[in-house]
Amino acid sequence: MGNFDRSMSLAGEPPKALNTGQKLAVVTGMIGLGILILQLFNLNLGNTALWLTVSIVAIFAGIIWFSQAAYANKHKGIKNDGVWFKSISSRGVLAWMAGIALTGFYIVLYFYPHYLGLVKDGDNTGLIALFDPLSKGLSGNPASQWFVYGTMYTVAILAFGAKFIWKYRHNKYEQLRTVSVMFFQTAFAFFIPELMARLNGDLPYYDLKNMWPLNYYNFERYRINGFIDSGSVGMTMLFFGIISIFVISPFLTYKYGKRWYCSWVCGCGGLAETAGDSFRQLSDKSKFAWKVERWVVHSVVVFVTVMTIAVIYSYLGNDSSKYWLTKTMFISGVAFILTAIFSWVMIYKREELAKDAKYGAIGYFTIIAVLIGMHFFSDSANIFIFKAETLRTTYSFLIGSIFSGVIGTGFYPILGNRVWCRFGCPMAAMLGFQQRMFSKFRITTNGGQCISCGNCSTYCEMGIDVRAYAQKGENIVRSSCVGCGICSAVCPRGVLKLENGPEKGRINSQDVLLGNDVDLMDLVNKK
Amino acid sequence: MDHIVIIGNGISGVTLARHIRKLSDKRITIISAESDYFFSRTALMYVYMGHMKFEHTQPYENWFWKKNRIDLVNGFVEKVETDAKKLLLKGGSSISYDKLIIATGSKPNKFGWPGQDLKGVQGLYSKQDLEMLEKNAPNKKVCNRAVIVGGGLIGIEMAEMLRSRQIPVTFLVRENSFWNGVLPAGESAMINEHILEHHIDLQLDTNLEKIISDENGRAKAVVTDKGETIECNVVGLTAGVAPNIDFLKDSGIELGRGVKVNRFLETNVKDIFAIGDCAEQHEGIGSRRPIEAVWYTGRMMGEALAQTICGNPREYNPGHWFNSAKFLDVEYQTYGWVFSERSKKDNEHHFHWRHATEKICITVAFDKDSHQFLGLNTFGIRMRHEIFDQWLTENKDIDHVMTYLKDANFDPEFFKLYEDEIITKYNADFNKNISAKKKSWKRIFSIA
User: Fold this and answer.
1) Residues B238, B160: contact at Cβ < 8 Å?
2) Cβ contact (<8 Å) for A83 and B414?
3) Global pTM?
4) Closest by Cβ to A14, choosing from B165, B324, B441
5) Contact B448 A489 (CB under 8 A)
6) CB contact under 8 A, B61 and A1
7) Which domains does chain B have, with CATH numbers?
């Protein structure tokens, strides 16, 4: 096989070259990006509002033009020609360069924002100063590194979203879901929080579509105080934050699977599906990777749960006039909820979990032991020997910054576009658990029509070996599936369909497939 | 312990091996000269087009075989000694067997055209063919034009492959409309249009006369029976396939076009079986051909034979016919039997609907007297296999199919639905007054 691959790259000059339109479009986009990079070096360009506009318009125009040149003159249909021949989408030199540049950007953004021009007391300089006019126009405040990042993030989702819609213009599902993530990013993550800051200075920044545990910081003391101090608006937001975890999200996940969030609403998912679309084929499909995924992502869930409980616990009870909830009430409440969920799953879904039940039990008892320990062996400042604050900063550094940003997005061109969602996101893991256990969602396999070609598995960004199920005539019910629908889109034989149907018979493993002798099927498929 | 030896690691042989392993502890060996590991033949085109790497066409990871104690041998069987129950491999080694299964698949047809063995002339079936195409037609500079001979499924796939590298393609089709020995006229006409849309030079009703060589023994042009000479660098021979059984001559195993087998997939020699493309039934089963060179039938034969070999004798007894393909951007599925005008019987009538502008159409075949539903071809609309299988089993009539057509739709969510339009045309064509029933999960899942 080694020989074969080599001959492909040496002898072949496959469909990887850019056409003239695409080349000009790249130049246009690069000019826009170039303006931003020049700003890093503090070149004083003068009219910042003008240059910011020029830069963003050029980036937009470049991406849209590129898409036009790539897709406008082609028939609608699957557009994966040359994906594995192009340097950028097959871990070539360009991919490594892009990966290193992105990773570097995230490191600077998280840990050295002053290189971007962030000035604590005084006027911003450099890149951040370029964004000051826009930030002042929206929230009234000067820009921060997060505002710069948020703006670029939104631009990326909108421009690459347009590209994605063009690419999948034969597929209404893909188009609608992309319009949805574009909307939620622009309105909920970008405009609304900025405008809220202008209206009510005490309210903490709140992207309403972000729920715990994705916004692991939501129940920290300063935020809770901020909500409480902002009166009924703040209390409503706090209430919304809590019912989204316990009511809204479970309900929607039951009805539609976790895709309602991961592929239709979420900002991380939004970037992955738009800017990251060219990298979806790079995810690792091996069974080994799946094992790693389950250990890592569930460890993050345990970590974030313990951390959040510890943080809330640490400030409760100190100020009974502010918080009616006492330490004891809180910790017993949490223990009760966890026990209820655990028992319910163990009683009703034990068989579906099979071997994984053991790991679930380990996770549950770890958390409960920690809770008990916390209550009896901690004083108000410390949780065991750690400060709750130390747990929080460790989580924030390891998971919030390194995992979700540096690795999750910086490594798009190397590891694929959903590395964070797959290996790191505790929200995805929790929704996934529910999707696996308690949801109507599945990807239906169409009888015996699978030809094992492998397009579905190759283009699954979550590294699910979709084919392994489809060729057995089995529906795909996997906790990691974000319901992007690409497996169904790239299937050349119409085998896969994302749908919400009755829970009964959602999983239907078959040894002998439809099309064969009816008696034989009966005989063999009876388990 | 029985030693089961399977020649060929395609879908039939591998399905058989997997099922034997599920049912027993027998020793299993698979021999192949084509590739070290099982891959999906139908996916080869996507490797050339850059959608996938070759490794992506392999459905099982490499550790799978050892874990399931399926021995893989990379070798070419030159001779079968049925008396000694022994295989002689190229290079001199030999392998003994207790039971032998021949699952060697097909090879591209060549009909004795002058020049058919020149360099640059090739079929598209094996991994080696793909590698050869990569050499013969890496880009449009090396290959200024390719001529494809034979208007079937492999021909149109090869055209799509070459077009993905912007290589000009001339497509010679013997029939006067693409694949109209199989497809009814309306569908065949739609695919003709689609081929032209993709800038493929479709020449219908045209045969290959000869291939002309340059001074180095490479193809440089073809001459058609219309007297036209077409310069080209690559000639794709895609006029169907034939069983790959040359090594069995003089083995004592009864051969026709393929390896002759009975319904238990047994050959005339005890303990030797044949499955997949290379097996030939003494008589076609139902409306099926004696040789079925289709992915799905290969798999089904593997499933059935595993039972027989593991002591639970089973005839190969396929259910309702189904198949699928993709013509450039248009997906095709078929359930039951829809015959073309050329081969259908008098009692088979068709209802045809085609979208006004899009490349979407369906044809429903039914018995003109009893109105029994016989089969459906669908282009650009995905349909549920289970539902049609059930309707065929229950001998539903065409009115029933039309009434419940919404249950059968398998297109992704939010796709535009055409059932109402289809039924309106049906009512108009046959002077009926059917109204479509709403899609019902209850009905769909009581079936599945």
Assistant:
1) no
2) no
3) 0.94
4) B165
5) no
6) no
7) 3-107+242-309 (3.50.50.60), 121-239 (3.50.50.60), 322-447 (3.30.390.30)
DSSP 8-state secondary structure symbol assigned to residue B39: -
The answer to whether A210 faces chain B, any CB pair under 8 Å, is no
The rounded Cα B74 to chain-centroid distance in angstroms is 25
Residues 6+ apart with CB under 8 A from B324: A449, A451, A493, A494, B331, B332, B333, B334
CA A394 from centroid of its chain's CA atoms: 21
CA B125/CA B45 separation, integer angstroms: 10
- CA B150, CA B172: separation in Å to the nearest integer? 6
Amino acid at A400: G
Structure tokens belonging to residue B321:
């016919």
The answer to whether residue A17 neighbours chain B at the CB level (below 8 Å) is no
Q: 3-class secondary structure for A312-360?
A: HHHHCCCCCCCCCCCHHHHHHHHHHHHHHHHHHHHHHCHHHHCCHHHHH
- Structure token pair of residue A137: 């126009």
Chain B's closest residue to A506, CA to CA, is B445
Dihedral sign computed on CA atoms, order B220, B226, B228, B234: negative
**Nearest-by-Cβ selection for B382 from A176, A457, A494:** A494
Nearest CA of chain B to the CA of A160: how many Å?
A: 21
A68/chain B closest Cα distance in angstroms: 18
* CA dist A136 → A36, A192, A277, B397 (Å): 19, 14, 33, 70
DSSP element (H, E) containing B222: strand B219-224
Across B38-67, b (16+ Cβ under 10 Å) vs e yields bbbbbbbbbbbbbbbbbbbbbbbbeeebee
User: What are the chain A neighbours of B393 within 8 Å (beta carbons)?
Assistant: 518
The torsion angles phi and psi of B445, rounded to 5 degrees, stand at: -90, -10
> Sign of the CA dihedral B292, B295, B299, B300?
negative
d(CA B126, CA B117): 17
Give SS3 for B447: helix
Name A63's Cβ contacts closer than 8 Å, sequence gap at least 6.
A25, A29, A159, A160, A162, A163
pLDDT in single tens digits along all 448 residues of chain B: 899 999 999 999 999 999 999 999 999 999 999 999 999 999 999 999 999 999 999 999 999 999 999 999 999 999 999 999 999 999 999 999 999 999 999 999 999 999 999 999 999 999 999 999 999 999 999 999 999 999 899 999 999 999 999 999 999 999 999 999 999 999 999 999 999 999 999 999 999 999 999 999 999 999 999 999 999 999 999 999 999 999 999 999 999 999 999 999 999 999 999 999 999 999 999 999 999 999 999 999 999 999 999 999 999 999 999 999 999 999 999 999 999 999 999 999 999 999 999 999 999 999 999 999 999 999 999 999 999 999 999 999 999 999 999 999 999 999 999 999 999 999 999 999 999 999 998 898 875 5
Q: Which A positions 77-116 lie with beta carbon below 8 A of chain B? A: 77-78, 80-86
CATH placement of domain A435-525:
3.30.70.20
Amino acid, single-letter form, for residue A393? T
- CATH 3.30.70.20 occupies which residues in chain A? 435-525
| Rounded alpha-carbon distances, angstroms, from residue A92 to A85, A87, A162, A279, B131 | 9, 4, 25, 12, 22
Cα Rg of chain B, angstroms: 23
Q: Which residues, other chains included, contact B368 with Cβ-Cβ below 8 Å and sequence gap of 6+?
A: B346, B347, B348, B349
CA distances from B78 to B10, B33, B245, B271, B326 (A): 18, 11, 10, 19, 36
- A176 vs B: CB within 8 A: yes
Q: Within 10 Å of residue B175's Cβ, how many Cβ atoms?
A: 18
What tokens does A11 get?
């002898």
Cβ atoms of residues B299 and B319 within 8 Å: no
Chain B contact present for A517, CB below 8 A: yes
